[in-house]
Specification:
This protein is α+β, with helices and mostly antiparallel strands. The protein has 41 helices and 33 strands. The strands form six sheets. A nine-stranded mixed sheet has the order 14-33-32-31-15-27-30-29-28, with helices on both faces. The chain has a nine-stranded antiparallel sheet with strand order 17-16-26-25-24-23-22-21-20. A six-stranded antiparallel sheet has the order 3-2-4-13-5-11. The longest helix is centred in the C-terminal third of the chain and has 41 residues. The protein starts with 13 loop residues before the first helix and ends with a helix.
């Protein structure tokens, strides 16, 4: 790695040194302004940093040398960039976005809105009636190939430039355009019908006169909308009332954030307590909502009722909102609309993904431009040899049109049809069931990948959590000792019942009171500590038990006792939560005897091993956030009135708020090395006075509209001090099936694998080892946490000295390195056999993909299963989504969707190989088909005094590129050089594909030579062997041309398929049958004579036989690697 870093000491540059010294007098902290920072040379002496560690902050940032923009740049694509910039600027000017503002929304009074808000209509159409034709034409003719043929076809309207029949140029172009327009029109009509269906859905709107039915598109800000169970929420609304007695409901958000777990939403307390639904119009109330934002996980607002004395103010947060496109899962909800149409969260978060263009398409585009250049050069040579006689400029353009078949219009059609065929084959492969190809334009990318960036949870692991470990500091319980915990719980609650006390008071007083004898104290202490830990885990969560079957059997008037007898013993009880970790913890407490049986907004109930029901009132809940990395709950036990604050979270977040302990950090590391996800559980007992004081400050902070989050977190943090550590839990996320052999196969195929995860460093490292992402023999370099430029510099120097070791780095350190040493870091990381990035945000994942694409120019693939992986999947050259526990959002956003991680091996090594090899062969063969006939035309023109007269006219040219050669050429999509079993057995064969040798300027040049040789032989042979009439030249050369193409297809096929044989004979039969109708071009009497047959045979043999001999000799003396394996 050291060799790749330039040694460039800073002090050798006197100019820089002068600036450096001058800047020391006016130094200011520019840590957050990377544009003002220099790229420090990594080999700089570490002593410099020790002498004055802040001097490097003021150095100017090195600028990347910009490419000069001259005429060459303009002709090679700069014109497209300039045109695009002008169009974007014009579009921005024409449709300036209205500034989004906060709003006051009066309940049931849309007319009181201060501004006009967008219509609540869904519109996914790309075009309208007037823009459809221009829009589709622009999308097609922005490609060089189509634009070229349009210019050539239009030139045929000029009499002086006309070469042949108009239909020979316009028919193929018109066919391609017609197919494209029909496809776009069908898609557009489908989009329109889907939009119309969604916009026409009827909803009940509450008015002064009662309920009225309104269309979804007619809903306005301020309307009171009623949404039934299993109905889509039409706009962003604030939740006012529900038919559920608990004052809450569940919604499904999988269409918004990709998560399959139900979310609990809470109605506004003031409106939920109103006696009747119609009372919503008898009160004077409004909602103050923040301006529309992208963030679907946060909301700030206030509810105010003016007609009460005093006025009622209620803070609103994300739990009071129902975003558009979510589904009501329980009860009936009534809400007031606050955002509509393009201001809803779902529309604001919808970005149209960029169309991905495969590397093979870009390579073919370059070859097409090379062919165009050759065409122009050939035309100029003809004019020069002609001696610039007459109107030479007109003749030049005629020659360009005459040689236009050198660039075949059928190239795009054949490739697009081939891509569709590859997609169909992938979806029909029984070895990878459930695979869906969502982007049919880039199947060849699967065969060119160098970097695979994968998520961890749900991708490499199953996202099925199993409780494995409970650690109390002095005692540790594993899966084989869970029965001891169960006996402790049974014993603890048995003692509680005997003493007629509650579970909390008994265990807590037992642990606090001094005991007379030491032995009972130890036993009592362990038992009470286990009891406290299990109780904390059973109480501190957001899990809700759901009893679907009893809702329909029992009416709404069942008693609490009946509900306890029936619901709590229901075998079909399921748990709903936003995290599978929490469900695993609650299921574990159930297995050891403490069962969560009921929960609503204000209370939750636990059932003891003896069947006793314990009720706890929920006073406050502090949900988990990515910033705090912990969640808490304050509960009051109903029988004793004791108030307890429970909290659980990541060890990093919890360590600073716990009482002193000497075991937590060590045990967290031990569990992480076992691959377990750890949670620290703690508690704090509160007095009534302490809680009332906290509640007042907390409610006041929640009502603030300025910096609400900061004020709320400050109040909560005042409570999070000196908490008592109860236990450490370890949950295992099991590996997906066959992850280890799949990763080994990919590594042997030369693919470098990077794991990007939001999990902690220790767990990520352990999963990397257990999944064999990092082999046992490889060293792991853990990049130490860095926070500034000096630390990053020193750590990169340390990493540079390591060789052939895997890198593990956290998201924060990665951000610092990329800010100051982007190029150096990526260069070093790309030399690692594996990289693990932990604590990564979704944005960072996408940023890493962009960096690899930008710095390495290699093809990248991203694979994930959750909504947080979508940005990474869309940024990669090839995105693969897995349908997993976290929903379908990643699967729907991806180019390819699979059901299991192990399927990626076959998808890349087998289908990726076949798609790339077939498309490369197909593209070059179609170009050969155009070059050979252009060579014949050039030979013909040069012999006949450089006349710009076509050799073949009318239907012969159309038939040549369609029915006479199309089927055999297209049958190349069935060819394969290696059997699937062999490709999987020897994944090393994949490495050759990434070098791009199947389609390069070298292979293209070989095909050019073949075309020149065969075209020359066909034309000169026909001219030598013809006897009397020119029409015989046409008959002999054209027939030999068709036979040569059929033999060349046979020469290139490596594995025969019965459809290939059928295509060969079908094309030959079509040509022979059509000879009877081509008397305009052929002499029918001549083509039935033996002279015609032997002349055609001789010319065909001379054009093809040398190529067969060369292929035989090459396979014998220099066979490719795959043929060695096949033999």
């Amino acid at each position: 790695m050291a060799d790749s870093i330039l040694l460039n000491p800073l002090w050798k540059n006197s100019k820089k040194l002068a600036y450096y010294n001058t800047a020391r007098h006016s130094r200011c902290s520019l840590e957050d302004e990377p544009s003002n920072l220099d790229e420090m040379p990594l080999m700089m002496s570490e002593d410099v940093f020790e002498n004055d560690k802040s001097d490097y902050h003021t150095l100017p940032r090195a600028r990347v040398n910009q490419r000069p923009r001259g005429l060459g740049w303009f002709l090679m694509g700069g014109w497209k960039i300039l045109c695009g910039s002008c169009c974007d600027c014009l579009a921005r000017t024409c449709r300036r976005k209205k500034e989004l503002k906060a709003r006051t929304v009066w309940l049931g009074h849309p007319e009181k809105c201060e501004e006009k808000y967008p219509k609540n209509a869904i519109k996914n159409q790309k075009y309208n009636l007037f823009t459809f034709v221009p829009g589709v034409l622009y999308q097609q003719f922005k490609f060089f190939l189509n634009l070229y043929f349009l210019v050539v076809a239009c030139s045929q309207f000029v009499p002086a430039l006309k070469i042949g029949y108009l239909y020979t140029y316009w028919a193929p172009l018109g066919f391609v355009m017609a197919v494209t327009m029909v496809r776009e029109a069908v898609d557009e009509v489908r989009r329109y019908q889907r939009d119309k269906e969604m916009n026409s859905q009827l909803y009940s709107k509450l008015t002064m006169r009662g309920k009225v039915q309104v269309k979804s598109s007619d809903i306005q800000v301020g309307d009171l909308i009623i949404v039934e169970k299993n109905q889509r929420i039409p706009a962003d609304i604030v939740f006012l009332r529900t038919s559920e007695k608990t004052g809450s409901c569940f919604i499904r958000t999988d269409q918004l954030d990709g998560e399959t777990d139900w979310k609990l939403k809470v109605a506004v307390v003031c409106t939920q307590r109103l006696p009747a639904l119609g009372d919503l119009f008898s009160i004077s109330a409004y909602v103050y909502a923040q301006k529309p934002q992208l963030d679907i996980h946060n909301f700030e607002g206030n509810f105010t009722r003016e007609d009460s004395d005093p006025q009622i103010h209620e803070s609103l947060n994300i739990d009071h909102t129902l975003w558009a496109s979510t589904i009501v899962a329980s009860g009936t909800v009534i809400g007031v609309v606050i955002y509509t149409g393009k201001e809803t969260r779902s529309v604001l978060n919808t970005s149209s993904p960029k169309n991905k263009v495969g590397l093979l398409d870009l390579e073919l585009n370059r070859l097409t431009k090379a062919l165009f250049l050759a065409q122009v050069v050939l035309s100029v040579v003809m004019i020069v040899l002609q001696g610039f006689v007459g109107p030479w400029f007109r003749n030049l353009f005629r020659f360009i049109v005459l040689f236009s078949y050198i660039i075949p219009i059928s190239l795009r059609v054949n490739l697009d049809m081939g891509k569709s065929a590859y997609g169909w084959m992938i979806m029909k492969d029984e070895n990878i069931p459930g695979t869906v190809v969502r982007t049919s334009t880039i199947p060849e990318e699967l065969g060119r990948l160098v970097y695979l960036l994968t998520d961890k949870t749900g991708t490499l692991t199953q996202n099925e959590m199993i409780f494995k470990r409970l650690h109390l500091g002095t005692v540790s319980y594993g899966t084989d000792t869970m029965d001891e915990i169960q006996s402790h719980i049974v014993q603890s609650y048995a003692q509680t019942q005997q003493s007629n006390g509650s579970n909390s008071s008994t265990s807590s007083t037992a642990s606090r009171k001094p005991q007379p004898a030491p032995a009972p104290k130890v036993r009592k202490s362990v038992s009470s500590r286990v009891h406290e830990a299990v109780k904390a885990i059973a109480l501190c969560h957001n899990v809700t038990p759901v009893y679907e079957s009893f809702a329909s059997v029992n009416g709404e008037t069942e008693s609490t006792a009946a509900e306890a007898d029936q619901d709590f013993s229901d075998d079909n009880r399921t748990y709903q939560a936003s995290s599978p970790d929490e469900v695993a913890l609650v299921r574990w407490t159930e297995s050891v005897g403490l069962t969560l049986v009921n929960r609503d907004l204000t209370s939750l109930q636990l059932k003891t091993p003896a069947g006793q029901i314990l009720t706890y009132n929920i006073l406050q809940i502090f949900p988990f956030t990515s910033e705090s990395k912990r969640m808490g709950i304050i509960v009051r036990e109903e029988t004793t009135g004791d108030i307890t604050f429970y909290m659980k979270g990541a060890d990093v977040a919890m360590a600073c708020i716990l009482q002193y302990n000497d075991w937590l950090e060590e045990e967290c590391g031990n569990m992480a090395r076992e691959g377990l996800r750890t949670l620290v559980v703690a508690k704090k007992s509160l007095s009534e006075e302490q809680y009332i004081d906290f509640e007042n400050r907390y409610n006041q902070a929640k009502l603030s509209m300025n910096d609400r989050a900061l004020k709320v977190s400050a109040v909560v943090e005042s409570l999070e001090r000196e908490m008592e550590l109860l236990c450490l839990t370890g949950v295992e996320d099991q590996l997906q099936a066959d992850v280890r052999p799949t990763l080994e196969l990919l590594r042997n195929a030369g693919i470098k694998i990077w794991m990007l995860t939001g999990d902690k460093l220790e767990t990520a490292t352990c999963i990397a080892k257990s999944s064999h992402l990092v082999s046992r023999s490889q060293d792991i370099h853990v990049f130490r946490s860095v926070s500034n430029r000096g630390e990053a510099h020193l750590e990169l120097n340390a990493f540079r000295r390591k060789h052939d070791c895997a890198l593990v780095i956290s998201g924060n350190s990665l951000e610092v390195c990329l800010r100051y040493y982007e190029h150096e870091f990526v260069e070093l990381a790309c030399q690692c056999p594996a990289v693990v990035c932990c604590r990564c945000s979704p944005t960072q994942k996408a940023q890493i993909v962009h960096l690899l694409k930008q710095h390495t120019a290699n093809r990248t693939c991203a694979i994930g299963d959750g909504g947080n992986d979508v940005s990474m999947i869309q940024a990669a050259d090839c995105g693969i989504g897995i349908e997993g526990k976290e929903g379908k959002q990643a699967s729907l956003a991806a180019d390819f969707s699979i059901t299991q991680f192990k399927h990626i091996g076959r998808l890349l090594v087998v289908h990726g190989r076949n798609s790339y090899k077939r498309s490369a062969a197909l593209g070059q063969f179609v170009m050969h088909r155009g070059m050979i006939i252009s060579t014949m035309q050039a030979v013909f023109s040069s012999i006949f005094y450089f006349a710009s007269v076509p050799l073949y006219q009318g239907f012969l040219m159309v038939g040549y590129s369609t029915i006479y050669t199309m089927f055999p050429v297209f049958s190349l999509v069935l060819d394969q050089d290696v059997k699937p079993e062999m490709a999987l057995l020897y994944p090393e064969l994949y490495k050759d594909l990434t070098k791009g040798r199947s389609l390069s300027f070298k292979t293209f040049f070989i095909w050019v030579l073949i075309s020149i040789y065969q075209g020359g032989i066909l034309m000169y042979g026909a001219l030598l062997l013809f006897e009397s009439e020119f029409v015989h030249v046409v008959a002999i050369s054209f027939t030999a041309l068709i036979l040569t193409e059929l033999f060349m297809v046979a020469l290139n096929i490596r594995t025969w398929h019965w459809l290939m044989v059928l295509a060969e004979f079908l094309s030959l039969g079509c040509y022979i049958a059509s000879l009877a109708f081509l008397n305009e071009y052929f002499d029918l009497a001549f083509i039935t004579t033996p002279a015609f047959l032997w002349k055609v045979s001789v010319i065909t043999v001379v054009s093809c036989l040398p190529l067969y001999i060369i292929k035989y000799l090459k396979r014998k003396f220099s066979p490719p690697s795959y043929s060695k394996l096949s033999s």
